[in-house]
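Hi L.,

As promised, Alpha/beta hydrolase:
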Amino acid sequence: MTSEQFLSKASKWIFYSFFFAVVLLQGCSSTDDPLPDGPLLAMELTNEAYGTDTRQVMDVFLPAGRTLEDTPILIYIHGGAWIDGSKEEFLEFRTAFEQALPDFAFVAINYRLYNFISNTNGFPTQENDVIAAVEHVLENQLEWNISDEIYLAGASAGGHLALLHAYKHQEIGNIQAVMALFPPTELESLHSFNFVTQSGLTSLLGGTPESNPDAYFQSSPVNFVSSSSVPSIFFHGTEDTVVPISQSDLLAAELTGAGVNFQYEIIEGQGHGFTPATYATVISDIANFIEALR
């Protein structure tokens, strides 16, 4: 081999060694530091699965410029008497929430619904799905570049599920506060409200308060209020004929007795669902409540 051939081979060996070293370092860099150098763009993840059932999905709305330190997340849980509804309910309020809380990420979840015909997905299926959804959000915190600070919100049955998780499973997720609109809070008393609540809760909970008292106790947020419960804000109309305002009165009494920071707003003359103007005020009040905590 001539000296020229040797130098040529040596040069190629040096080149390829350098090339693979650069590739290897770049690969290590992207694995060890998943965060980009510049601000992140807004992102939407639709029907993100958090379980194996087709109902166990969520929509995720990530804001531009989000960071691990400064982007808390609000998880919204839809209503529908635990038998109906979908995560699309959040879309009615999305713009207002994003304007009121511009540094927040938002998640809207579906959960398995009770089926009267097949008698499947009775409680605590919905409670367990909220737990699984919260855990999924936490598992993706780094990938989504969001904080671990979680705020729970929901309307009607969704408000019930938000309150139940916040008080009963506060250790699952770094729950900062909870907000609810016209929520069921004490299912034993709600059972006797009318024929609809009697038949619905008897099926959902597998019996009456007399035949299955533990199911009613375990499913009632008021039973898990303590002095360490998270700050709470909730709203209820005086003309609600679906979930009586007495349900929120009971919650207010428990929170007062436990010394919990809360805000209870009674909406005069409105029922199970508010006017657009009232919803705008409610979301503004929620944002002010949250900002006062931070």
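Residues 3-32 form the longest helix (30 residues).

Thanks again for sending the construct details.

K.
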